[in-house]
Amino acid sequence: MLDFEYSCPTRIVFGNGRTNMAGSLCKAYSKVMLVYGSGSVVKNGILATVASSLEASGISSFMFGGVHSNPELDKVEEGRKAALENKADFILAVGGGSVIDTAKAIAVSMSCDSAYTMYQRVCQNYEDIDSRVPVGVVLTIAASGSETGESFVISHQGQKLIGTCRSCAPAFAVLDPLNTLSLPAFQTACGAADILSHLQERYFASASSNDLSDQWLEAAMRTVIQTARLLMDKPDDVQLRASMMWVGTLAHNGLLDRGRGSGDWACHMIEHELSAKYPITHGEGLAMITGSWLRHCMAFSQARPKLGQLAQRVWLSVFANDSDENIVYGITAQEDWYRKLGLRTSLSQFAGVCEKDLEGIASSFAWEPGDLVKLTPQSIKAILLDSYSRKD
Fold first, then answer.
1. Phi and psi (nearest 5°) for 172?
2. HEC profile for the chain?
3. Which of 170, 206, 301, 315 gives the lowest tally of CB atoms within 10 Å of its CB?
4. Predicted confidence band of residue 262 (pLDDT cuts 50, 70, 90)
5. Average pLDDT, integer, range 146-172
6. For the structural domain made of 11-179, what CATH number should be given?
7. What pLDDT does residue 182 have?
8. What is the pLDDT of residue 285?
9. For residues 267 and 209, what is the distance between their CA atoms, to the nearest angstrom?
């Protein structure tokens, strides 16, 4: 086990109906900016519940909506200006990962002369800037895990980059399972695929001798897999929604990967390049890439023990650990799971993705992503072509 430090500054408020606590959680602030997406939180009444709770606590608020998937830097700049003009002293994200990431980026951008300056300093040059105002979250989808993290993902000019600032970790996150009951099956499935990937990116770290967190991650993976299957048939089951919401938070708040190093993250990096170019939902993009990445890793001796362990402990294979039959069983089971959730597992299934573009995507990597297996542009191209060639 590697040396590590761990801190989770986010206060987690979990439970049915806890959305009504937004006002009391913001009682130290006087002007709250409510950041939300394209309208679902308006239709299902969640935004109104939050606004009413703030009003009942004597807190003034104003709305900033229109955040879309794969949020753009231009929207962050628009939000920065609105926050400054309205003298916001707290930013409350009501939504999922894209909304939360936008709120974080706005908060950090308020300390800069523009969102574009923030992007250059934080996302390109890896500075840690103190955000002007704190951020809170009312979560509406189990997926990104951004509700307790220090990072955000923003797109700009065909790139999708990660920024990390310790000060933008949310002050609190309201995890109300009732807020996820209205999610369509596709969004539920994409969220589950994202959560599973967060767990696996940590699982496939090169650091060894950490069986405790291996077993934590494996238990969490089994929970996601089983819960997602059940939710496809029982979307109104609040206990299932609660289980998915909690495992989604745990998957990406840092607890489960302490002592393991930074993890692999190759699948996420490749998917980020894809969804920066095409309107692919992040979770489904991961479903299209992960099986091909796993097949690529089979050829590397350092990867085979962990691939075999995943197949046995998570997908319940009965084959010998290091055998091809065992590893292939695990990969096949994972891709079957994606398909049963209604997700595509081949890039050729997504309209608009062109085979001729894949080499350009692969060559855009100026570094070699991955930890368990380092990926060259040639190997990234091979992974993309493998996904494209699959006829599911």
1. -150, 160
2. CCCCCCCCCCEEEECCCHHHHHHHHCCCCCEEEEECCCCHHHHCCHHHHHHHHHHHCCCEEEEECCCCCCCEHHHHHHHHHHHHHCCCCEEEEEECHHHHHHHHHHHHHCCCCCHHHHHHHHHHCCCCCCCCCCEEEEECCCCCCHHHCCEEEEEECCEEEEEECHHHCCCEEEECHHHHCCCCHHHHHHHHHHHHHHHHHHHCCCCCCCHHHHHHHHHHHHHHHHHHHHHHHCCCCHHHHHHHHHHHHHHCCCHHHCCCCCCCCHHHHHHHHHHHHCCCCHHHHHHHHHHHHHHHHCCCCCCHHHHHHHHHHCCCCCCCCCCHHHHHHHHHHHHHHHHHCCCCCCHHHCCCCCHHHHHHHHHCCCCCCCCCCCCCHHHHHHHHHHHHHCCC
3. 301
4. confident
5. 94
6. 3.40.50.1970
7. 92
8. 97
9. 23
Separation of alpha carbons 223 and 243, rounded Å: 8
CB 383 within 8 A of CB 292: yes
State the Cα–Cα distance between residues 183 and 141, nearest whole angstrom: 8
The values of phi and psi at residue 62, to 5°, are -145, 160
Closest CA to 371 of 292, 285, 219, 269: 269
Query: 119, exposed or middle or buried, with CB in 10 Å at 0-12, 13-18, 19+?
Result: buried
Residue ranges of domains in the chain: 11-179, 183-389
